[in-house]
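Title: Prediction job returns without error message
Component: structure pipeline
Severity: low
Priority: P3
Assignee: unassigned

Description:
Job completed but the reporter wants confirmation the result is attached to the right record. Sequence as submitted:
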Amino acid sequence: MTKNIYELNTRYDDKFLEPQWDHKVVNYDLEKFPWTERILSVVQEIRPHCDKLEYLHEHFGRTEIVPLRKKIEKYVRSKEFSQWIDEYFDSIIGDSLGEYLIQATPTLNFVLPDQQRQGSLLTFHTGHLTAYNNGMYTIWTPLSPVYGSNSMQIVSWEESKKITFYMLRDKLSLAEIQRRCEKKSSPVEIEFGETRPGQAWLFNQGHWHGNINNTTGISRVSLDCRAMTKGTDYGFRNPGSYFRFRGTVVDLPQGIETSRRWIVFNDPAASEYMGTMPFYIARTFIENYADKLGINPVGWHNEYTFTDWNPHLEFFINDTEVQGIVLLSFHGLSSSINRRMELFELCMDKDIHVLFCDENFLLDSREGLDYIRKCLEF
């Protein structure tokens, strides 16, 4: 626990608080970025009579919201939408962050009336507590009117420090955390309407933020997306999967040659990526991913534990007639970056295609090698 308190306290060093991202509201060009209309068009594919997002709850049952969110998330991962997000971030961030990546799948949040009783309350939290780090920044864009209890509630930087410290020291219950945050927070005030400029809210990962029970009688729909600067300790949020380079898309690969002789391969020795995940869970994930793409592997294999040079993987590349290998991730091998690239280059020399599940990336030509190294070294 002492280690946790120390680590979080260091994350709250004021040097990490960029003024631009300290709970700031910014304007954007609503004509160039009509986010509400774009998302509403997807909603209307299911419910044509839903003419405003704030009335979403009148057209969808509570159990229909998660399928709706999944449908919209597929849309926001598209090439077209990703290009709009690139332009949006450039218009707001410009060159202020230097080189940065963008969250591959922007997050959609639906705050329906009386959501706490229904079990869908987004409780107060910080980015630090949900696997985000300093060097990651959030742009929160409401797509429907936001005010009072349907808006995001935000705690100041200084009060966020205090709540975090006492949470860890006293092992506070979530009910108590929620109570303290509600007491110290205020709703994000955003102007909304066709005759007003578009507005978004910028914040970093140290601010406590979340929702309280929505008693306004209308739904709130919002889009949030993050940037990550080069050199950030990204933890679970890997470049090439959770974050993407501008101008790229992280979506299911096309042109898979399913007639090739494929194997599924997992490396449990990659402890930084795998943690203590049981072999069979990772393997099942890879197999399900392969099945979704129509690949019928001839076998599955695990790397040897206590190794960091991938001898088992190298054997299947050099000493079999395998034509395709399905791996969990660029980041999911125990060997060094240079050793991984050596093995991937060897695959290209032997015309072995390599499919990476986490990144939705197919390596089938030497051109893809530079992209993989770029992700691993960001």
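Comment from assignee: result matches the submitted record. The mean pLDDT is 94.
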